[in-house]
Amino acid sequence: MRILDLIHAKRNDEEHTAAEIEWIVNAYTKGEIPDYQMSAWLMAVYFRGMSEAETAAMTMAMVKSGEILDLSGIPGIKADKHSTGGVADTTTLILAPLVAATGVPVAKMSGRGLGFTGGTIDKLEAIPGFNVTLDRATFIGNVAKHGLAIMAQSLNLTPADGQIYSLRDVTGTVESIPLIASSIMSKKIAAGADKIVLDVKVGAGAFMKRYEDALSLARLMVEIGRIVNRETVAVLTNMEQPLGMAVGNSLEVEEAIDILSGQGCPELRDVCLALGAHMLRLAGRVRELEEGREMLQTVLASGAALAKFAEFIQAQNGNPEIITRRELLPRAKLSAVITSQEAGFVTAIDPARIGYAAVLLGAGRLYKNQPLDLSAGIVLTRRVGDAARPGDPLAKLFFNDASQLEEARRFVASAFSIDDRRPPKKPLILGVVEHESK
Ligand code: URA
Ligand code: CA
């Protein structure tokens, strides 16, 4: 095979065979295709698209480029959850103990934050002593013993995706639905999931700004799951405002404790219950979603989910006392309040601006390996639909380094839209995509 012929074919909107896709992925990963030709092929894919069969072949070629984590030693069906990335999205910290408390094993690999979206691993590191770098045997042993473990992605999973993603990032080819779908699905499959629940975010704070695009992405990922025999459900959720109230690592741990204690932001809780119910059903724990929701509500109300969170923290060397003594978590020395200049109702809160302001305060990274201030971040005090008068607090900023405070303040203030009329209430769950043959 020759890459030039395949570039021509894709440019002319022809469909590749699975063998051709596999060859491209392997040859690029081995350094046999130079970046300029791979870039040309990716740009042809960006404009011409890929069929479901091509996308499934690309997914599996990337899976096979590295290790596949074998979770078969852990009894039960392993359901994993993936979010396409949001702001104030603390769902993993809440969902993992919530689902594990019902007896469904959760074995999760997570990443660090980059840009304005946070990462679960950074959040867990806000817990004093918490160890995110488990070896394989400890990871699997902890899931077997406690029903739950979360570790940083450190194995050699999907190296082809890593290389291709880096090239896409600098060649304007990230925003391609088949390339995003294969990238996400390859990582989930390599991490050993039997069943996959996807939280596909839609709106200003998400990759997919338009519902139609998010729906296409969701359908394609569910179809790839069917083709490669990993049952997948996608839940489309609204990202018109930050999902919870807190943005920032230590602040989000506190918010997770609130939700697991039966308090906290209703939107964040509802998304967790919806995603969790799908995980329970895919794992065979319940037959109906409603039954799953009730089971999750029971373990929230009984305190079992919070107790599972404490057990999990202890099992990974963290200090579980943070649950009752929040002052043990990293705390910022300084704070500032952003107040409303106008009277009216909050009609929108741009998650990207809030996320970017949190980065300026030290809560996130603009480049890989940038050190974080785990205590820094933002807590919203108004949500979409709330009334505000001049002088009312909209958000509180927490930081230790005030060098970029003014810019952060401007971003937060401009994230809020305030209007005379109360906006109509929008649903949080915009749609669900499942396999059709059921
Ligand atoms: N997230 C991923 O993991 N891959 C993409 O291509 C886009 C978002
Ligand atoms: Ca096409």
Description:
- The mean pLDDT is 94.
- The chain folds into three domains: 3-49, Up-down Bundle (Transferase, Pyrimidine Nucleoside Phosphorylase, Chain A, domain 3), CATH 1.20.970; 79-324 and 430-437, Pyrimidine Nucleoside Phosphorylase, Chain A, domain 2; 330-419, Aldehyde Oxidoreductase, domain 3, CATH 3.90.1170.
- It has a four-stranded mixed sheet with strand order 1-4-5-13, with helices on both faces. A four-stranded antiparallel sheet has the order 6-9-11-7, sandwiched between helices.
- It is α/β, with parallel strands linked by helices and 438 residues long.
- The protein contains 16 helices and 13 strands.
- Helix 10 (211-227) links the parallel strand 4 and strand 5 (232-238).
- Uracil is lined by residues 165, 174, 179-180, 183-184, 207.
